[in-house]
Task: inverse folding
């Protein structure tokens, strides 16, 4: 074990943080050498854990297939069973004296930090709506330029171009971004309420705890693995033999079947979510009865008159299909393509972007909407890491 404890924390400047975090990594490596049977997961590197399947496709948990664990958080049936057995095993160790009844691992109190991905995404979109309404459209003059829904859409896409790639709008890009953590996957939970990144706490309170070695071993025996940078965080090890046994006991042959049955691709759902989001923001930012000022120049004089802005209420449409038809599916495919392209910050000419949109529209006409969306997501893959350090120039 390292003689000097890492003292990195969230209050350090970038240089100090870098130096002390390097010391933390060295100390953890030394711990792993001392305990060769110990395994830790590095979620700073495996940022997509639980968010992509074995084919590296973005997937999302089916909330209706999740179960509540003691009312604390939602997870899957096989995880709940493994966790229950794990807690019982720790209690047995405490009773027979092979673990001491003190410290965070003896308490084993799971915190309910989990928020399901739907609620998390809705809250995030609300923040984006607030940014558009109060920061992007921050003057009466800007708002006065919006006379109808179509003009608003163009304005909102200008906002999307400014916000991206740092603040994505589609769910898939949001889900794998820094704005969404591992907890909505249902595959991670914590036994403490620590602030992430407090290296001194991680070592002195957890790694140095007298029970750590036994707790970590029991975690691995039950299909869990401890987070390298948060030793109070347990993560489901989907490829471990113990967890595979729990999968099979609950009717899932292996991790591949878990992803196939308990997860789904968010691609088609996110398209319609974009339609709803953009539509509802207009009705809230420019409600029925709102007006804009029209300027009139006559006989050398300037006058102003208030004109009613177009009323557009998404709730008045009978279905999503009717809502889409108001602008037309071709226009919405172009809107979706523009947002997706800006999210990955891809460097395209206007002609290249237009050609991609045209092909997507044709695929929808000849085949179906799913084929069009698959093509758009192939061209603007959310997992693509752009090296282009400027804003693209293509327009909506």
Result:
């Amino acid at each position: 074990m390292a003689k000097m404890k890492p003292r990195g924390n969230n209050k350090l400047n970038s240089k100090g943080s870098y130096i002390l975090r390097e010391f933390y990594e060295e100390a953890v490596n030394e711990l792993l050498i001392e305990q060769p049977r110990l395994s830790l997961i590095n979620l700073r590197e495996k940022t997509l854990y639980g968010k992509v399947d074995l084919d590296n496709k973005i997937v999302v948990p089916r909330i209706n297939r999740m179960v509540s664990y003691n009312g604390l958080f939602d997870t899957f049936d096989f995880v709940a069973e493994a966790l229950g057995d794990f807690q019982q095993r720790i209690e047995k160790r405490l009773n027979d004296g092979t673990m001491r009844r003190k410290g965070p691992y003896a308490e084993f109190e799971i915190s309910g930090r989990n928020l399901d991905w739907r609620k998390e995404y809705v809250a995030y979109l609300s923040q984006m709506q607030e940014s558009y309404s109060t920061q992007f459209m921050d003057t009466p003059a800007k708002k006065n330029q919006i006379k109808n829904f179509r003009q608003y859409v163009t304005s909102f896409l200008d906002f999307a171009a400014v916000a991206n790639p740092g603040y994505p709008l589609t769910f898939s890009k949001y889900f794998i971004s820094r704005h969404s953590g591992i907890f909505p996957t249902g595959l991670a939970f914590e036994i403490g309420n620590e602030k992430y990144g407090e290296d001194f706490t991680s070592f002195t309170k957890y790694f140095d705890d007298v029970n750590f070695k036994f707790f970590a071993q029991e975690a691995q025996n039950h299909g869990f693995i401890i987070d390298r940078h948060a030793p109070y965080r347990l993560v489901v090890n989907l490829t471990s033999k113990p967890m595979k046994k729990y999968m099979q006991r609950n009717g899932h042959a292996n991790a591949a079947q878990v992803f196939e049955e308990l997860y789904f691709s968010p691609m088609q759902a996110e398209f319609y979510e974009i339609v709803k989001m953009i539509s509802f923001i207009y009705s809230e930012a420019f409600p029925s009865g709102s007006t804009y000022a029209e300027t009139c120049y006559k006989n050398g004089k300037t006058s102003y008159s208030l004109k009613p802005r177009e009323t557009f209420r998404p709730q008045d449409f009978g279905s999503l299909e009717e809502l889409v038809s108001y602008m037309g599916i071709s226009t919405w495919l172009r809107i979706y393509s523009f947002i997706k392209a800006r999210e990955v910050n891809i460097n395209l000419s206007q002609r290249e972007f237009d050609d991609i949109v045209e092909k997507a529209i044709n695929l929808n006409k000849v085949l179906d909407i799913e084929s069009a969306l698959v093509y758009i997501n192939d061209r603007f893959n959310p997992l693509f890491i752009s090296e282009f350090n400027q804003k693209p120039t293509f327009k909506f």
User: Anything to note?
Assistant: The chain has two domains: 14-114+188-251, 117-179+267-379. DSSP finds 16 helices and ten strands in the chain. Residues 117-179+267-379 form one domain. Strands lie at 40-41, 60-61, 67-69, 73-75, 188-190, 224-227, 230-236, 263-264, 291-298, 301-308.
